[in-house]
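Course assignment 3, question 2. Fill in each field.
Student: A.L.
Task: Predict the tertiary structure for the chain below.
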Amino acid sequence: MWRTALCEAANLSGWDSKNSRDDSELVQSIVEDISKSILNKMPLSVSKYPVGINSRVEDVLKSLNIESNDDIRILGIYGLGGVGKTTIAKAIYNRTSYHFKAKIFLENVREKSITKGIIHLQETLLSEMLKSRNLKVHNISRGTNMIIESLCSKRVLIILDDVDNSDQIEKLLGKCDWFASGSRIIMTTRDKRLLDTLGNGVSTYRVKELNRNEAIELFSKHAFRSDKPSENYLKLVNQVICYAQGLPLALVVMGVDLYGRTELEWESALNKYEKNSQ
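Answer field:
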């Protein structure tokens, strides 16, 4: 038994001190690698009150068939801004990522492509998927090729959050025709037409707004710290529900804003909401 244990220990990968200038650099490298390993296993923060999320996640999971290794599935999740696309995608990542050794949830692609650039997104994708700290991309075309060359033989889970043009997809994933069998690619976007440009191999899922009961429950969680609204606020709550039109983000923002306020303060706030929307 001890011989077996020694053989297994000898085959474990570790840190080579020859690659570090001194002991402090080696220790820092070990700490960073362990920290990254722990962070990669932590679930993404989804929502404080995930009202309506589970049923929608289950709908998506049915179409993904995660456990199958026989095919490649590309899914586009679309809907209005604030309807919960990112929340659902994060929940899907938490539910499925353990099936994949190479996986990433690349958040805020639209915003980061502007503020930090596509090369930064390419480096983030490569670093997280390959678990390497020192990957550098020197130009966009080479970055795309590096992604394809490095990942084409791996079963991957890639979630691109909030894409808004095909150029972002092409520079991060090429023509989407190179994935290994069993891979799952998910994109969230407000624009269904963007998904249509990717061809027939992409399935789509429209995130529907919350129904009335879900909207009341979510709003009440934030505005009253309860599943139901207070009786004397019912008329005002109905105004909020009509105004929010089933969008979770609007319900959360207003619920937080109105928590602990008097009826008069609610009326004043609702008037401001309506004026700002005109």
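Instructor remarks: The CA atoms of residues 144 and 173 lie 7 Å apart. The chain has a mean pLDDT of 88.
Grade: pending
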